[in-house]
Design a protein that fits this description.
- The protein is an alpha+beta fold.
- The chain has one domain: Nuclear Transport Factor 2, Chain: A, CATH 3.10.450.50.
- It is 43% helix and 32% strand.
- The protein has 3 helices and 6 strands, in the order ααββαββββ.
- The protein has a 6-stranded mixed sheet.
- α1 runs antiparallel to α2 and α2 runs antiparallel to α3.
- The radius of gyration is 23 Å and the shape is globular.
- About 16% of the residues have low confidence.
């Protein structure tokens, strides 16, 4: 073998070994993401159910203890108790408290992972009246599943 080629052959061999050794790790992480996204979507489904039912206590339990939320009017809630109060105010102003199928807000969003234990829910809410607005939620994977850690809702765009 040509001695001048030896460093190149060694380098190529090391790169091959490195790629073989990390490939299972990369594959494993990407293979888990669909099930984690499904878990986030299931958490969101619970949120929607509680939202339509007007259940601020159950919604609060989906948030982390130190959650942070800002609504479309710019009001800010810090901590689970304040988040519950913010939703309670929404539901008290809604008549009837429970949403019928005809007057439900719809949510259109995508999930994007920032890390294995942190993901964004990013999209738009669409009101029955036709108004819509942007929203973003930061979710974190806790010991008991996915929870909402922070949320921002933009003002309605007519």
């Amino acid at each position: 073998m040509n001695p001048k080629l030896l460093p190149s052959v060694i380098s190529s061999g090391l790169m091959l070994l490195l790629s073989i050794s990390i490939a299972p790790t990369i594959w494993s992480a990407s293979a888990q993401q669909p099930s984690e996204e499904q878990a986030i979507r299931e958490m969101w489904d619970r949120f929607e159910t509680f939202f339509y039912e007007g259940n601020s206590v159950a919604i609060g339990l989906i948030y982390t203890e130190d959650a942070d939320r800002r609504n479309g009017q710019g009001e800010h809630a810090r901590g689970r108790a304040e988040v519950q109060q913010m939703y309670e105010a929404i539901f008290l102003g809604r008549s009837p408290r429970q949403s019928s199928e005809a007057n439900r807000t719809r949510f259109d969003f995508e999930v994007r992972f920032l890390r294995a234990d942190v993901a964004l829910i990013d999209g738009f809410y669409i009101q029955a009246t036709g108004g819509r607005g942007p929203f973003t939620v930061v979710t974190t994977k806790e010991s008991d599943g996915w929870r909402m850690a922070a949320g921002r809702a933009g003002a309605v765009i007519e």
